[in-house]
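Anyone able to model this chain together with magnesium ion?
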Amino acid sequence: MRAMSVDPIVNSLNEAQRRAVTSDADRLLVLAGAGSGKTRVLVHRIAWLIQACHLAPHNILAVTFTNKAAAEMRHRIESLLRAPLGAMWVGTFHGIAHRFLRLHWQEAKLPQNFQILDSDDQLRLVKRVMRGMELDETRWPPKQAQGFINSNKDEGLRPEHIDDYGDIHQKTLVNIYQQYQDACQTGGMVDFAELLLRSHELWLKQPALLQHYRQRFRHVLVDEFQDTNRIQYAWLRMLVGNDNAITIVGDDDQSIYGWRGARVENIRQFGDDFGRAEVVRLEQNYRSTSIILNAANGVITHNSDRLGKNLWTSGAEGDPISVYAGFNEVDEARFIAERIQHALQQGHRRDDIAILYRSNAQSRVLEEALLRAAIPYRIYGGHRFFERAEIKNALAYLRLICHRDDDAAFERVVNTPTRGLGDKSLERIRALARELKIPLWQASLQVLQHRELATKAGNALKGFLALIEQLDQETRGTGLSEQAERVIGASGLIAFHKNEKDDRGEARVENLKELISATREFEISLQQESATLAAFLDHAALEAGETQAGENEDSVQMMTLHAAKGLEFPIVFMAGVEEGLFPSMQSADDPHRMEEERRLCYVGITRAMKNLYITYAESRRIYGSEALHAPSRFIREIPIHLLQEVRASARLTRPMSTFDSGFGGVRERSAAYRGNNGYGGARIQADDSPYQLGRSVRHPKFGDGVIMGCEGQGPNARVRVNFRGEGEKWLVAQYARLEFV
Ligand code: ATP
Ligand code: MG
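re: yes, here you go
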């Protein structure tokens, strides 16, 4: 009877998986590559513990990486057991620590209704503290202080544990941390990093409580262990103690959060710290075709210092990996949309398809291509480009230039970046606007006229109004992109985000520059004179208003490579696989970061089950400027016989191996290709085309140049021109208004 009831739990497992699931070791490490069934083993082991070992769900704690993964795990166990799990705890580290603190607020010395601070709230509080300390924000960027606080908390350090080496800079940061912590304590507030640190300290200080939980959680199971940081590791160590069991699963080759304090060493150290562990290696991959798997293996072998794994599949060889060289990012996006449409026509669901990219700023062009092709999509774990806070702020400046009476825009940026206008002053302006039924802009003028504000606030407001007026006058008559660049520059937003030292600040600056790129493209896509600021703002509003596909609507999944961890999709596009973007520019001189980028590439490739497309753009306008990029070294690291270069039209494909040398030459090759074959299978540059190679032309904005190439024909032809002052650009013939000279 019992044997029958556990059948479904072990029958669908291979030998090694079964060994892991049914192991009676109380320290078990499952170390295995992507798609080998680690998460599956974890799920089945929990079911096994309940069914075969009669452990109550109540005695199990499972930790995963996202809330979505936790929900999925619970669901899978319940369907294996055909019973609800009620009291079992499954969650993220943060979620579980939060639960502890809610239950034990008194012992943790927190008010019962303590508040969680999200990152923005936290920054606001850091600023308030710094103002109290009279620190100059330009010298002491609040974002940097916030990063300092969080990374120390992630390491388990309180201000008194941090050595300031007598260094004034360090001393000040420690001091901010201390005062911030005091403010949190007084206000009953807890930030994310604090959740873990505080619950760790709670156990340290309350042995009876720790004992209680040690008696409860007899078995702790952790997925994606390679991305645990120091405090999470210490937290687990303490909870498990010497008597409880722990199962961890992980893959050192998928450690991608080093920049946030994750320590892949935790895997190596596990046996030393927790006591001898049984190690099970899973080597069979069930997710991907052998071509995809071999490509992933080919890339990751370029990393040194790996724990080493051997992954194989008995599955089909599958299609070669398609590589597409877009001539720019718009072409790349259009190719992806075209291929998705093709896949949908073949009967694939939209949910089966994912587009993965290195940086959030890449999503805009891809989103536009999907919108144009009317393909519903979702951005997983992020906002759509025009809905991001920094973009909305920049647009608010532009809206005010257009329309002083835009109250929503006024509210958004009157004190962003902060310029010393307090709530009280703003409330006065709002009250007057309400009373006289006038816009906030007008109310501000009146408030100033009647000197109703304190001097500092009055000056700040005056400065803001003058800035908008001045920018309007200065940029009147200039082109849209110049106007946007000037306004965004003068708004102080870039400097504001640049000073944020954490990864998000950098991403926000990139997005702002990307907004300038968007205005340039808008100019190119429209006749220059119709590309006005007002038209662009409408375009942005429409794009932002276009609702994201609903949670359950069948839609193409878009996400960063980081967010794709643990997931799988039949069809995957990896976009922007170029030197300088992926691997990122910042990793170029740092071998450790380069290896982390390579692991990220490994994660990306191994998300694909059946078809993988790798795309890059030969020229890319991103972060506000245009750059020529070489294809990523990661493409070169894939054995060449697994690749095929694809043209935009599905008919024209060639195996990569027909090319003479390695992948390094693909730029030249694809350029040569176009010269003969044309773009998308269309004949290129008919002899009667006016855009003959070497012909001199003049552009109203870019000046004199020489035609370097042309693709396609008719109004949609694209012309590559080398401008004397501006360098090379691709232009759409029908909009470029090129004059022959
Ligand atoms: P990652 O490293 O990406 O997190 P993983 O090692 O956790 O991957 P899983 O997601 O558990 O791998 O499994 C990958 C895929 O292979 C899933 O679709 C899973 O259902 C399937 N799979 C795993 N083991 C088996 C098996 N023994 N039989 C059939 N399918 C399996
Ligand atoms: Mg997994």
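The chain has five domains: 7-102+197-284, 115-187, 321-383+553-674, 385-544, 696-740.
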